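Hi Y.,

Following your request, here is the sequence exactly as I used it, all 703 residues.
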Amino acid sequence: MRNFHRSWLVAASLLVLSGNLMAAGPTAPRAAAVDGARLVAADREPGNWMSHGRTYSEQRFSPLEQINDRNVSRLGLAWSQTLEFERGVEATPLMVDGALYITGAWSIVYAFDAETGKPLWKYDPKVDRAMVGNTCCGPVNRGVAVWQGKVYVGTLDGRLVAIDAATGKKTWETLTVDPKRPYSITGAPRVVKGKVLIGNGGADMGVRGYVSAYDARSGKLVWRFYTVPGDPSKPFENKAMEMAAKTWRGDQWWTWGGGGTVWDAMSYDPELDLLYIGVGNAATWPRDLRSPGGGDNLFLSSIVALKPESGEYVWHYQLAPGEQWDYPATTQMVLADLMFQGEMRKVLVQAPKHGFVFVLDRTNGKLLSAEKFTQVNWASHYDLATGRPVENPVADYAKAEKPALQYPGPLGGHNWNPMSFNPKLGLLYFGELQMPNFYVMDRNAKYRERNRRWNTGLDMAPWVTDPSLGGEVAKHVRGSLIAWDVAAGRKAWQVEQLMPTNGGTLATAGNLVFHGTSDGRLVAYSADKGEKLWEYRTVSAIMGGPIAYRIKGRQYIATGIGWGGGHATGFPDGATAQGLKNVNRVVVFALDGKARLPAVPRLEQTIDPPPATASMEQIVRGGVLYMNHCGVCHGSGTGGVPNLDAMTPQTRREFMGIVLGGARQDKGMPAFHEQLSAEEVLAIQDFLVARANMTKAAQQKGR
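Below is the corresponding structure, written out as tokens. Let me know if you'd prefer a different format.
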């Protein structure tokens, strides 16, 4: 009887315990519980988008097909959220287990409920607004990485920050750059084998590029791979740098910095256990300045394969030996296994600024194909036996008697905006940007110890003194969406776009390609034929890459919107062209979505400058200074943030204090007292007055 009662009590206790557990429900999954196994097997979880390119291969192809070419016309807005600031959204969102993570301007990270849009948390790394002076293209950010309960973001001022994915609280941070040099971070981290990989930007300001790996748990540096050699009088970091140094000439490159920053693209092949990094452009641009006497200048404009455990060099392929046109190899690298030239190959595909689609054997870096996708005249073709381009005379602008029109210009080809690959069709989808340029070397360029914006070594005076240069470039500007048959090495279809600088793409198993445009639309095309099937007016531009995800059986399409970055240098977006404010947002669509996008406020601006009284010499001087220090953010007067043609009388009165004294530093306008003198600021102001009068006259003539 005693044993019976004891057994009954034990059984009763188990029943009570079981009931309590059932009442409590299943244990909630840990936020962002992503590890290597999940990322390698990402195709088994098509509802999630757990890394920058969805998979390590960076194909940006979603296997979801609930939204397809037969019903995409029913696509409507499910929810939207406004992000802070008006300085551009370049991020690819991530969606993991019901939470959507995205970054906005100033490296701010947002987390939303991916089904409803309800804000979960926000993390602001408190970037010093003056740090925008160290950037080429404004305070933009391309997104985050997630790993084992943490969200990782690279900040504009060079920090790598780990954030608790459930609470939005910082768990650790580490400074990844030398704060004495003009480094910045705008790229998205990647995580491979428990290591957070991050590069940096700043080649155009004069820095030495590298990529770093940090322990995901502690933030401690595991390894660092430099992409260009440093001072040869000091020991080389490894044999790869010793090899690279033999391809540089002169005694100045390490003073200028060399460049070669890894500011965007990275891909990983788990089977080969190889990490691929895309290396950026040179500092300075003209090779005669940084490396007199020639040389390939490794690893500029190169794809480099490394061992992810140690950062050890394995192989490289250089797209542009002696690069001097701002042709980085930082565009997304797609990994695919496909039938190519009669045999099954493991390939790496890139469509960078150079104007060619490159296909490499990713096991060894051998060039298999390089075919033009846009107008190109810097090189006639690539010699497949040597892997090198055959340059045309126009490419060596330092030896030219007068400026010659070169295709592509510094914007590409195809810029950083993400592309996608449909493995079922073998098609690669990306935006073409045709915009040539006149390159002119500044033969009087001198290195300055102080930070100087856009330390490119180009002479900007001809652009100010000869308006016909800009007019000639404008005649040839256009943009399109291209579907490229990788195996055949040719275009499958092409759709002209209203503006040249457009956003990224997403390919899905529903026979769809989604493409964001700078005139303010998200458009869906049939993936096989390029027929337009649906579009939605986002008003402001889309620059980054859309994603697809699924929750509770319902598929969604999400993207960020908001104009800024390098594209805004010379072009307006859809909002600006309509006299509307640039509003940064995240927008999410689903079948039969009924939400409405909030109204966009009007951009109140009047161009009413005082009369231009400065001499032509003073205006030209100011124009050159403006292009070297200001133009990349403030643009040509139509796309910049803000538009300086429409300065108020108060702003004109406070101009000296704003530019030299940092009176608007809290709004992202850095002080330039280290770079400019009072006399130079006056020259810039005189140039802006003259330009605003020209803009006003053109407007009145057009009425």
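The CA atoms of residues 250 and 488 lie 43 Å apart.

Thanks again,
Q.
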